[in-house]
Amino acid sequence: MTKTDTTAPEPLPLEPDCLPYLQQPVVLGLSGGRDSVALLCQLVQKGCTVHALHVHHGIRAEEADADAAFCARLCEQLDVPFEQQRVDVPALAAEQGISLETAGRHARRWLLAAAARRYKGCTVALAHHADDQAETVLFHLARGSAGLRGMQPVHEAGGITWIRPLLSCRRAEITAWLQAQGQGWRDDATNSVADVARNTLRLEVLPTLNKALGRDVTPILNRSARLHGETQEALEAALSALPMLDPQKRLYLPFVWLQPVSLQKAIVRRYLQLKHVSDISEELVLAILDILPAQVSSARVNLPGGRQACRRERRLIITEE
Where are the alpha helices (DSSP H) in 53-203? Predict the structure, then answer.
């Protein structure tokens, strides 16, 4: 008689940078898909305090209802507090003139941030993994505005800490771990249709790249994103040490004028980030560079959100329109 192997599968490798944040309560976005289910099970096994939030998008009718019911049952089995929020994503997309995908992402992030504040400073955990990272890098590269930028394991936004503990795990690795656990999940049929950009990248572009290059490009893209992130961190540290601001935190132009154009661009971008300007494109940075010289008569550039960048007395300031 063969002895049954009852050894529990090895836990999935979690991002080291995320581990300190798992010592405090976590709000987890739980869709019912394999990634968020795996992350929930991992956090519970580690003894983390988890609040699960499921967002019902008002799409896919009975399938979406079944997803929500699955998440509720799973959380009951794991003794995890569960919350469901309903959002009319089609109405939100129509109102804002954006895609369903974008509207759903905005709704989820807003609700997760609100839950984190409601639960008194929880960290928000997202279940993105290495294959998602590769899609993100390609997406940003194709758009041309962010280079090789990928997702970070830990980042701050809106006063909330967002973590991605599974960012180094592959999709196949997550699937195998769940199967070894005997843990089921819900599949979203819309993810298998190449009808939006990210689905097309996952289903068509990445497999084509793999075939063309004769290798798995996902680790390569992830490594490129990591190296790019490290370079950006080094640049941010170097910029923070420069005397680019005056005592009133305005951009000090006599210092900027002395720098090469490439560094001027980095300084302006950093200043806009410090002033919480959104949607910083290269075109916007170049437009601001054009008004910096003292001899240029035009001294204003419109910014997103109804603000302006203005040159005044050898300083650049951000004002409300």
Answer: 61-78, 89-96, 100-118, 130-143, 171-181, 197-200
Q: For residues 150 and 137, what is the distance between their CA atoms, to the nearest angstrom?
A: 5
Based on C-alpha coordinates, what's the Rg of the chain?
23
Q: How far apart are CA 30 and CA 50, in angstroms?
A: 11
Distance CA 166, CA 41 (A): 12
Count the helix, strand and coil residues of the chain and give each as a percent rounded to the nearest 5: 50, 15, 35
Would you say 137 and 150 are in contact if contact means Cβ atoms under 8 Å apart?
yes
Query: pLDDT digit string (tens) for 274-306?
Result: 888 877 888 899 999 999 998 888 788 998 878
Residues 6+ apart with CB under 8 A from 97: none
- Nearest Cα neighbor of 15 from 122, 116, 133, 181 is 133
Q: How far apart, in whole angstroms, are the C-alpha atoms of residue 160 and residue 190?
A: 30
Predicted confidence (pLDDT) per residue in 110-146, tens digit: 999 999 999 877 899 999 999 999 999 998 888 776 6
d(CA 95, CA 87): 13
Domains and CATH numbers, the chain: 16-200 (3.40.50.620), 242-320 (1.20.59.20)
Give the separation between CA 178 and CA 170, rounded to whole angstroms: 13
Position 320, amino acid: E
Q: Yes or no: say if 28 and 122 are a contact pair by the CB < 8 Å rule.
A: no
Look-up: residue for tokens 């590269």? Answer: 141
Residues 6+ apart with CB under 8 A from 115: 27, 51, 53, 83, 122, 124
- Could you tell me which residue, 223 or 195, shows the higher pLDDT? 223
Whole-structure pTM value: 0.82
Q: Which residues pair with 315 in a beta bridge?
A: 252, 312
Q: Are 90 and 50 in contact (CB under 8 A)?
A: no
Task: Give the integer Cα–Cα distance in Å for 64 and 226.
Answer: 35
- CA 215 from centre of chain: 27
Closest to 129 (Cα-Cα) out of 186, 170, 185, 188: 170
